[in-house]
From TrEMBL:
The keyword Glycoprotein does not apply. Isopentenyl diphosphate binds at residues 41, 73, 123, 218, 220, 262. PANTHER family: 4-HYDROXY-3-METHYLBUT-2-ENYL DIPHOSPHATE REDUCTASE. This is 4-hydroxy-3-methylbut-2-enyl diphosphate reductase. Belongs to the IspH family. Catalyzes the conversion of 1-hydroxy-2-methyl-2-(E)-butenyl 4-diphosphate (HMBPP) into a mixture of isopentenyl diphosphate (IPP) and dimethylallyl diphosphate (DMAPP). Acts in the terminal step of the DOXP/MEP pathway for isoprenoid precursor biosynthesis. (2E)-4-hydroxy-3-methylbut-2-enyl diphosphate binds at residues 41, 73, 123, 162, 218, 220, 262. Its EC number is 1.17.7.4. [4Fe-4S] cluster binds at residues 12, 95, 190. The gene is ispH. GO terms for biological process: dimethylallyl diphosphate biosynthetic process; isopentenyl diphosphate biosynthetic process, methylerythritol 4-phosphate pathway; terpenoid biosynthetic process. Pathway: Isoprenoid biosynthesis; isopentenyl diphosphate biosynthesis via DXP pathway; isopentenyl diphosphate from 1-deoxy-D-xylulose 5-phosphate: step 6/6; Isoprenoid biosynthesis; dimethylallyl diphosphate biosynthesis; dimethylallyl diphosphate from (2E)-4-hydroxy-3-methylbutenyl diphosphate: step 1/1. Dimethylallyl diphosphate binds at residues 41, 73, 123, 218, 220, 262. It comes from Leptospirillum ferrodiazotrophum. Binds 1 [4Fe-4S] cluster per subunit.
Amino acid sequence: MEIFLTEYAGVCVGVKRAIKMAHKTAEEAHGPIFVLHEIVHNTHVVNDLANRGVHSVDDVAEVSEGTLIISAHGVAPSVIADAKSRQLDVVDTTCPLVSKIHRIVKALADKNYTILLLGEKSHDEVMGVQGHAKDHIHIFHRKEEIPGLPMTDGPVALVSQTTQSIKYFDEILALLVERYPQLEVHNTICDATEKRQTSALAIAGNMDVMITVGSMSSANSRRLQEVAGGLCPASYLVDKATDVQAEWFTGQERVGVTAGASTPDYLIEGVIDRLMEISRERGMEPTVVRSESSEEEFIEVH
Ligand code: SF4
């Protein structure tokens, strides 16, 4: 089999930063250490952190002392205030690109905008963003929800969860401008998401099978699998190497591999090793084509 790794795959700068801050806290902080929800949406990263003594909680109220780490997805200001009122030390690993959305929606709310937020209601990032402009934000995800959004002659703005699909955002935008001619658009899909989707699309059409490495809890990994599936119907999301099923490759030659922004490199390499093993079991010497970018990714906050 020929195995192709996309130009951009795996952990982004925001995730690397959050993990590094959490590890440093695990080494240096005194007393119990907790993280609110999952530091990033990857089960292996979460388990590794638990092995370092940092356990996830679902609510600040579960923590009575010590340190509380805020995940890369960010939270509402009320959550930080609550933690501080409980005398907890707060380590905030919110990705700067998520913090940028917090500032955007806060500024829009101060100017009395109606804010339409394209995202998943139950996602940590979306709930955190909502908390920065509570009464002004209307969250929606499906096109069918658009007729239910409030009509107004006043100012209206569109913002997005960082991990939405670029193509879907454009489709939604085309529908919204008809309903709200005054719409102000803030495309807040992050650069890392865009690069991973674009590089998956660049190869998916020429592949027999596409594999996305990432956890089911990861919105950007699920989206990558969907995006790749648009061009390559045999598109699978796997959390780890042992999830890869040999029968997916029967009669198939070209396999593309991509990975969500929260997937550590060792999991990607594990999946590539598994694909090579499957190829050899079928009597074919595998080749691996890596088009990884040598360009250093960085967070650019305008
Ligand atoms: S996917 Fe984007 S917004 Fe999320 S942590 Fe990475 S860089 Fe930040």
